[in-house]
Structures are given as C-alpha cells and as structure tokens.
Amino acid sequence: MKRKMIIDSDTASDDAVAILMAHRYLNIEVLAVTIVSGNMTVQDGSRNARYTIELCGAQTPVYVGCERPLLHEPAHAYWYHGPDGMGGMNYPEAKLQAAQGHAVDALIENIRANENDVMLVTLGPLTNIAAALIRAPEIAPLVSRCVIMGGAANVVGNVTPAAEYNIWCDPEAARIVFRSGMNLEMVGWEVGRGDAALTEQEIRDVYALDTPYAKFAMDCNVHALQMAKNWQGDPGLTLHDPTAMAIALDPTLSTRRGKYRVDVETRGELTRGMTVVDERHIVGTQKIFTDAWAVREPNVLVHHELDAARWKELLRQCLG
Ligand code: BDR
Ligand code: CA
C-alpha cells in the first residue's frame, strides 16, 4: 500500500534532490508536484521539476502555481543555486510538459479526492498552500501530515538574522498556513546544518554510487555547495529540502522534536518572516494571550534535529 504525497516546490537544486528522493522511495506515490515562486520563477521551477521527474522515469503531473508572494515582490535565489537553479548544468528541456490547470486548483482537488490519505510536503514559500486555504479552508483537516521545510526554530535565520528564506519570502502566506489547523510539522533550516551537511568525502561517496541519480544530485548542487561553505559558513553541502523530505518519508529520523505554538512575524522591521516558537510554553502557562497570539493551542510539531548518519544512509539508498 503506497502512501500518497503532494510536493509543493520552488524547484532549484536541493528541491530537485527531495523530489527525486520521493520518487525513488519505495512506498510513496507522488500525486502531483505544484510549483510556487521562490528560488526560481515558476517557469524555471517547473522546468527543473519536470527534468527531475523524467530522470526518475516518472510522469508525475507538474502544475504551475502562484507567480509571486501574496503581498511582497518576488525575491529569487539564482545567486545561491546558479543561473538555471541547477548549478549551471543547463539540463535539456524535459519531454514531460507542464500539466494543464493551476497548482492551487490541483492542490484543492487532490486533497479533496484523497481525504485523510495524503501527505503534503512543502519545499518553498507557502503562497500556493495559503491560496488553496483561502479558497477552500475545509481542506485543512483533510491533509494527513503537512511537512514544511521552512523557518528557524528560535535560532538564527539564513536570509536575515531572524528569518529563513521560505518563510521570509511570503510571511503572510506562512501565517495563514500556520493558523489553518492543518496537521503541521516544521523542519527549519537549522536541521540541515552541522553534522547533517555532506562533507567532501561524503559527496565523493555519493558519486561513487555511480548512478545517474547520484551524479545528478551532486552535480546540480555544485553552486549551492560553494554558497553553503562560503556564505553560510557550513562544513559542507546543506540539503534543506531533502532533510525535510527525509523526515516526511521516515519520521523516526527525527531525534528531537516538540509540539508548540508557532506563529509568523509579518510586520517586524528587523524580524519579518521570523517563526516564533513558544518552545517553553510560556504563552499558555502564563495565561498570556495577546491579540498577536491568535494561536491558542500548540499547532506545529517542530523537528529540531535529525539522526545525521541515518539521513545520509537514506539519501544514499534513494540515489543508489
Ligand atoms: C530553503 O531555501 C532554498 O534555498 C532551499 O530550496 C530551501 O527550500 C532553505 O532556506
Ligand atoms: Ca526550496
């Protein structure tokens, strides 16, 4: 019995590895990949997703979605992922065409058609998901798990000291999703750092698997590797979307987690896009609910850490 999954993505290099993992993992059926503006324009994201899916020998429909955040201007990240988002590899156009219809419609239809039996994994800004929830709020409880790659759980962010990119790009959308009542799990960018980053030796070990998947996964991340080391100060290749996908595929990889109230700062001059995690349950225990704390009950399962050795083993399995 396969578990059903929808992936929402702004497909650049690490998204591509996550999409590949889901397609290569044994008991997963990917119903759709929906594309959102984020790292890439939606056209480039769609092109990268379709190339990745075709490499896996699959025909998963790819739907183009929202071309810009709800309120803000787009802030693409070609500077991080390379001029094509794929490390400058300039892969050819896939034969697989983009599916007809809008990503937001595809999300609503697929969730309704697979009530309580579909997992949603989000790898980009939450614009498409928020738009779907605005149109059809009743879909929130129909999603079995929504695993979000995004945020920074009371730790430093990547694009500002306070915020992680996916949430910072469209904080209003993130707030709608975080307040929606969906069964949410958050995998912040910090989960992919430290021991979870692939060292030079581990990258060589992946290449040594000698499969098209392994070569693709490492090649398309060459630019991201340099940025992770030189800009983020990480010890190797950080694969944020794949670490979130790993926890979606196998929740036992998560080694430290907790369910808390989490909300998103939308207006802070310095803190826009910050995921504020009530990690000490201060709001509830002190009976303090300000107008800002619309979230009354713990609403997000936050994963803080994962088993780095087992995550890398899972990655190698998917690429082997
Ligand atoms: C997120 O931003 C992008 O660079 C990655 O694809 C990931 O979704 C990390 O902040
Ligand atoms: Ca992404």
Give the count of structural domains: 1
The helicity comes to: 25-40%
* SSE pattern, N- to C-terminal: EHEHEHHEHEHHEHHHHEEEHEH
Q: What is the percentage of strand-forming residues?
A: 15-25%
Ligand set:
beta-D-ribofuranose, calcium ion
Instruction: State the shape.
Output: globular
Low-confidence stretches: none
Number of helices: 13
Protein described:
The chain is of the alpha/beta class. It has one domain (3-319): Alpha-Beta Complex (Inosine-uridine Nucleoside N-ribohydrolase, Chain A). The chain has 13 helices and 10 strands. The protein has helices spanning 13-24, 42-55, 78-81, 103-113, 127-135, 165-169, 171-178, 200-207, 212-219, 222-230, 240-249, 282-285, 308-319, and strands at 3-9, 28-35, 62-64, 118-122, 145-149, 184-187, 254-260, 262-264, 275-277, 300-306. It has an 8-stranded mixed β-sheet, sandwiched between helices. Helix 1 runs parallel beside helix 11, helix 4 crosses helix 5 (127-135) and helix 5 (127-135) packs across helix 7. The radius of gyration is 18 Å and the shape is globular. The model has no long low-confidence stretch (mean pLDDT 96). Bound molecules: beta-D-ribofuranose and calcium ion. Calcium ion (CA) binds next to loops.
